[in-house]
Amino acid sequence: MEHAAEVVEFGQFRVPVRRVGKGMPALFLHGFDGPIDGSFMEALAAGRQVVAPTHPGFAKSPSHPDIHEMHNVVGFYLELLDHLDLYHIDLIGHSLGAMFAAEIAAMVPERIHRLVLADPLGIWTDVAPTPDVLTTGGSALARLLWSDPESEAACRYQPVPFDRTCNWAAASNYLWPLPDRGLTARIHRVSSRTLLVRGSEDRIVSRDYLRIFEDALPNATVEEIPGAGHLSMLEQPAAFVHTVAAFLDS
User: Fold this and answer.
1) CATH number, domain at 50?
2) Which parts of the chain sit beneath pLDDT 50?
């Protein structure tokens, strides 16, 4: 399978981008803990090209003082897609990346073929509040991220503390004090078929929280990944890929 890691430069931006596979492009937007890698990425790229950029300010990607609000993020990704000649794509977002993906799909619905929102953030409701992950650490954080904090996947996942601090500082622009930047006022513009996928044991994104997304998206279906928490693609990669690929190929 073809792999390519590059730094894409356009305008004032330098963006690390990983590409895996060939075929219909699928943009993958990572979550608040930074870019994630694993067997799921190659498996997901069977029959398609997965394009995985790093958000500005994450994982040693240069930060930009003008990218700290949602409309700046959407503008940044539209420019990146234009630069990469990607005009009609599948869009996959996880966690914070799902928040970005939903905003992009709402602003340019004609460019999105299929939309996958995995364990999505982006809405606040007192009925189903999400925990403040950016002020949580240690074993409490592990219990939020994983169905089984003692699993092999959880033990293998060891972000560098400095990198995690930088990632969370960048994520705080969108998640603190509340993970809501007005998405509910725009989400009705999403016209693509949408898959809402959640780890069945996700302690950040509850079933009630996901139901709010489902109610707002008329073309949405919901799937759960058994035995997975917030990082479902790492804890149960085969089930995650099967669920997402089946939807994208439908």
Assistant:
1) 3.40.50.1820
2) none
